[in-house]
Amino acid sequence: MAATPSRIRPASRLAGWALVAAAAIALALYAGPQIIALAKTSRLHAPDLALFAAQPWVIQVHILAALAMVALGGIILSLRKGDRLHRTAGWIWTILMMITAGSSLFIVGINGDVWSLIHLLSGWTLVSLPAAIYAARKHRIEIHRRAMTGLFVGGALIAGGFAFVPGRLMWRLLFG
Ligand code: HEM
């Protein structure tokens, strides 16, 4: 049975954007002074492949899957939805996101030797992804759309943005 898309409730849309805004403000407060200080001495350069090669394989897998996930996610957003191309690209994106979130469970550092707050996003991702796929298979398209968009925004903007904070590995790979 074909589903009728329901309207997105303004309150939940507002809550989503409030979360993104809060993360952006927290990031700016946390990293703002460092970014300004480092911007004066750092410059963008080709990726430091020697530094990348020196990382544990789980971090290498995490970075490659995450970057591919962000790139493919951007393409999927611009594709027509529901056809074979969307479904194939969507499955590849889902696998990339599972690898990104799954591999992150084996990475620690920000919070010493234990999981940090970002691992909450990993857990949320690993639970939400199967639920979003299930919704699509049941033709609950609006639920599927909102869950996938939320995962992409959360992954690409929040976890991705935070990965480029000065001092973290992505920063050192490109600006260090
Ligand atoms: C563009 C996207 C992403 C990039 C480039 C990226 C990159 C990285 C890198 C390089 C690390 C190693 C630690 C360090 O930075 O020093 C890391 C750690 C981590 N990433 Fe990502 N990541 C991305 C997306 C994600 C996503 C989508 C998730 C979750 C669903 C995630 C969860 C984590 C977690 C939990 C850690 C461990 C943090 C800790 O040390 O406690 N990342 N990421």
UniProtKB/TrEMBL annotation:
Pfam families: DUF2306 (PF10067). The chain crosses the membrane at residues 57-79, 91-110, 116-136, 148-171. It comes from the Bacteria. Keywords: Membrane, Transmembrane, Transmembrane helix. This is DUF2306 domain-containing protein. InterPro entries: DUF2306_membrane (IPR018750).
